[in-house]
Fold this protein.
Amino acid sequence: MKRRIIASLLAVVAVIAVGPSRGWAQKGPIKVGFLTQMTGGGAAVGRDMSNGFTMYIEEAGKQIAGRKVEVIIEDTQGDPAQALTKLRKLVESDNVHAVAGIFLANEGYALAPKVDEYRIPTVWAVVSADDLTQRKPVKWAVRTGWTSSQPNHPFGEYVAKTLGYKKVVTVAADYAFGWEQVGGFQRTFEEAGGQVIQKLWPPLGTTDFGPYLPQIKRDADAVFAVMVAAMALRFPKQYQDAGLKARLPLIGGGTTFDEFVLPSLGDEAIGSITPLIYSAAIDTPVNKRFVKEFRTKYGKVPGYYAEASYSAARWIAEGAKAVGGNVEDKDKFLAALRKVEVSDAPRGPIKLDAYGNPIQTIYVRKVEKKDGELWNTVIQTFPAVSQFWKYKPEDFLKQPVYDRNYPACKYC
Amino acid sequence: MEFWVTQTFNGISYGALLFLLAGGLSLIFGMMRIVNMTHGSYYLLGGYVALTVIWRTGSFVLAILVGALAIAIIGVGEWNAFLKRLSGQELGQVLTTMGFALIFQDLALIIWGGDPYTIPVPRVLSGAYQIGQLYFPVYRIFIIAVAAAVALILWLVLEQTRVGAMMRATVDDPEMARGVGINVHGISMVVFALGAFLAAVAGVVAGGFVGVYPGADFEILPYAFVVVIVGGMGSLKGALIGSLLVGLLDNFGKALFPELSYFTLFAPMAAILAVRPTGLYGRA
Amino acid sequence: MRSALFSGPPVAAIIFLLLLISPPFLSSFLLTLLTQALIYAILAMSLDIILGYTGLASLGHAAYFGLGAYSVGILATRYGAGFWVVLPLGILLAVAVAAIFGLVALRATGVYFLMITLALGMVVWGLAHRWVTMTQGDNGISAIPRPELGLPLSLAHSIPFYYFALAGFLITFWILRVIVRSPFGQTLVGIRESESRMRTLGYHVWLHKYIGFVIAGGFGGFAGVLWACYNGFVSPVDLQLATSVEVLLMVALGGRGTLLGPALGAAIIVLLKNLVSVYTHRWLLILGVVYIGTIVYAPEGIVGAVRQWARRATPGPLRSET
């Protein structure tokens, strides 16, 4: 009987011991939590993100505004529930001063209410779900990446006016990211006189585009494809083998041909034109240095995942500097984060709009072969593009978020 | 017209891929009643090993052989060390094979990293044959050819050789087979190796088409199960018909009812099982 | 003289006491994990009814979890329904679907049952994924509010919600315990041991299995309702195949047919997934080893193994417990 009481008491003591003590000294290191997917299907993206983020911190000598910086990287496992649990841990147990990261839309939406509840300054590094800075804004978060529709607004005009395509078929991954990308493109493309004559929606993760390719209407001028990760790997080859590449030029969303998949693509990708917030081929000293260092350190050309996370770290640093290192004052720190302006990020100048989303340069890129490697050569730039393009925010927000059926396919 | 021809062709080529993947699983299922959640991992690892072989040697054929053999060895190892003792215990099998699937998934991540890759295929297999307005990608024809060859070889072995007869006997009734003096243990090992071998071949062949990437193992696993269940466990004919059926159903389902993609696959599966719990050609 | 650990009330009482008094002393992260463990324990115990007591291994149990969770998600965010509305409706939906699925699945046993339940689970998952107008598809449903029960302490805070989950757990445990100890439950065990024998004895085997299946589905739905309330979020990930397999592991690890075993298994797996992934990215590897280790070293699960050891260590007439 005695043994059991002692055992139980020991258990209670052990349990208490696991929890951290509270009330340490105020000016310890600045702690930042970085949340992304480190295992499972999106692990490579998560790794690019965490590499980009830590590269900045290390370049800054692990110091921000005179204080040491401690980065705690947590794995969301691609599961929104896990993301929530890890956020709780970062805020309640680790007492971080800020949180950054996230690239999946469902993780972003899951965390959003909690971020506001905790009043924890958060930097969405990559997640591009439109509504996070539009109709469902998060007071305590800013974005250093993009909205899914942002690059495609100027691109729609570009395709109609510069490339001269009149009829386009869209083939996009059937989930929110795909819908928002197509929505942004369709809107400005049709306003500039173009017509989207067909919309195809292969489910996310489609391996075999066999069911979709034969459906593409033959009287189109081009095909606008929105593919992500592994889908982007397969699509160009199958597109070419189905005899379409020869007849229908392939354009698309930026992730279809971004630096993440280019190393694994072959000649079938050459000539494709896509818009994005970044290209590793941007010809500025800042970017060249960034690409060279990232490549040396991590063995691959950085894509926008890495650059957006690098810039997220920069953002936190600038915000902390602006409040003299006093990140404990959360309200001031958040206000500072919203006011940060960077003119020399690898991607160019960035500043935030009133909703916390970047106003930045959009690059129209073309896949070309240089020294035996595929690069996204920049062929056109649109400076200072916001998530609302040329529309007034109030009007833009009155309309529903882009989805499968909005804008409607008038010419289908 | 064009639409139907191309879609049918695509459906058949997808079915061919599924046959490679599920054929072995059906035999394993039928013979040893083992629910093998690691089967997707064989597919994945086969692709990754082949990738490394091609990077080192540039030979696609070598890649297929080495990849498949390596996975067959791993599969037999798994069976010998763990699964053998679990016959009749579905729960134990599900959990053990799931454990291996997770371990393999993480090992693949450690060894090859998380980036998606495609297996570079020989020039002769790229491009497409054009007949009028129709394009038939050469690689898809290749997949169909490989599957047909495998089906033929399997059929010949099973129907025309002594070893095949022993396999069929063991599938039908292991007790009886043992009683007649058949080395059930040995045969089981061969069948398991064969199943893993075929799954790896599927992984390599698919690798040239859809690529090799983390998550491929769990993506393809439900499809393998669907084929085996619809076709019936332990039946080669069932596996063939099942995979063609699933390939065509999935293809046309996606083309005609894109909103219901997963539904068009799993609902018929459940329906068939409701009517015939042992599958179309299976035995109880 | 009781020399073993798991020999009855004193241990259960100590655990109950610990669960009751520890929250204010725990770090909030640990409290979070414990709350999650309690909810998953309900799910695991519900699976134990058909797996442990009836001997039917299901690969689609997460479907009921998902149905309960999505009911809350849809009703609370679209129609502003309160807790006392979503609770019965969520459970009702799970029960209704289990009733339909049971008709299909129970035509088979063993491996075939496994496969049918797999397929049915995938159908529900597919719907969650593709029926975007209802479920928001991949994005999931967010901003689900915590239940408003008019209590002095709001459930929006961790400690009150913990006690709320604890209450759910205890109610489930009590009801299920009553069920398994009743003649109905004993019949289930008999069916697990030998269906043909029970049939010859005149029991309506199919009806017993069916009712057991529906009860399991209902409580699975209950767990789902609590989960959605806790997380404030539900997505297709919550009912994917891997989740169904994980619940199987919880039951096997803890010890099937013991009710408390699966609850313990749930706690271990939840703690493992969350704590281990803090210290290493290789948590998948470790989880895989746990899967295999459980079957190799503790096929009867932890509670099962302890009870066996206790029985061997106790001299005198054997005591039988369920």
About this structure: Confidence is low (pLDDT under 50) at residues 1-7 of chain C. The first helix of chain C runs from residue 9 to 21.
